[in-house]
Amino acid sequence: MAIPTTTSTSATTAAARSYALPMAAMTSLFFLFGAVTNFNGVLMPYLKDVCQLTDFQSSTVSVAFFGAYFLMSLPAGVLLKRLGYQRGIVVGLLIMAVGALVFIPAANSRVFGVFLLGLAVLGAGITLLQVAANPYVSVLGPASGAASRVSLVGVANNFGGTLSPLLGGMLLFGGSEVLKARLASMPVAQRLSEEAALVKGPYIGLAIFLAVLAGIFALLKLPELESFADEEAAPVPAGQAARSSALHFPHLALGVVAIFLYVGVEVGLGDYLIRFGETQNIQQLSGFTQALVQGLSVATNWAAALFGQTPAPIDTASGFTKAVGAVLVSSYWFGSLVGRVVGIPLLSRVNARYALVLVCSVALLSVAAAVLVRGEAALWLVVLCGLCNSIMWPVIFPLAIQGLGPLTKQGSSYLIMAIVGGAIIPFLMGAVSTYAGGLRVAFMLPALCYAYLLFYSLRGYRVR
Fold first, then answer.
1. Where are the domains of the chain?
2. In Gene Ontology terms, what is one molecular function of this protein (predicted)?
């Protein structure tokens, strides 16, 4: 009896080791997804100033980036069939590197359209990576561990998304006292050109990192996985064989709208948090916020030094500034990280749908209250929504594909395409802010999104 047990244990250990390196590589990709995506929350107000844009014009940052998810999702699937998952990942990383390098001529010319081109190319590359990496992680090892693997890469995604706006704020809105004094003394046109050049360092560093990562993935021996076809053999649920499209299931169609609005509201709140803070006219920050900003400023200044800067601590005596706002954006995404770490294990012990009802209700009330109140409290109510957002994807997605049988893969594709909500909702918020009453009115759109998500958690999820 001892011999078979030892052999089985050795085989299991060997299998775990064979998946460890590929899993570590995939985790680094998801960290990258979060970092690049959430940097847009800092980039949007930065470009608004550098390129002298309205809220509506600056909202096209999200359109250019997330529009790629909609336009590239299906072509990415076709490309992956030709290249395979490993080479597809390498190509995706190289496409992203090209997009990052586009920021050099964009900063030199200070032409907003060139910035948008760089963002669109980045978005196209990250779409290819997402289409490859998401299913790969789910089957990279025993089926019993799929949920834990998805949770792990989700945490890495949130961690990258928490760090990037914090470091981006240091690089784009921080700077040394000498640099700030020099910029302040310049004519407007020259100052804007100098500020535009600040973005080149982060994106050159990103391009180098992406190229190195592409080389690593090209050399890795990733296992060829054959389990992607398992879903197609799933049995057809009784009484549903006549449905030829996943969209014929009302709960899936409503779920596509739910994912569209969830991604849109999550991105929109993060992208407009700094601008929302500027409208509050906050002259004095609370002691808590000052301590948080100063502590994070000291902890992250070393990273800015890697890009040739020696930034001074963030000034908290002057009230709300873009640098302070970048810390709040980071806190917003940190709430999502905490919620993911704490919430996902809890979902296995409580009714996930009831948890969805709770977080949608809290988020709806928080945004509505943020619109009605003024000052710093309004900002922290928006930050609270990051915590609420954390479990929405892992609950809505499985609810939406429940009972689809062999149409599960098709339904999943529609849900992935719905990520384009990250382009549309911020765009609509920018339009409302510029042409229909200001940013406070625009924040009613996220409230309406959360109202729909609450409806989906109460009734829309039901399989019919």
1. 21-221+246-460
2. transmembrane transporter activity
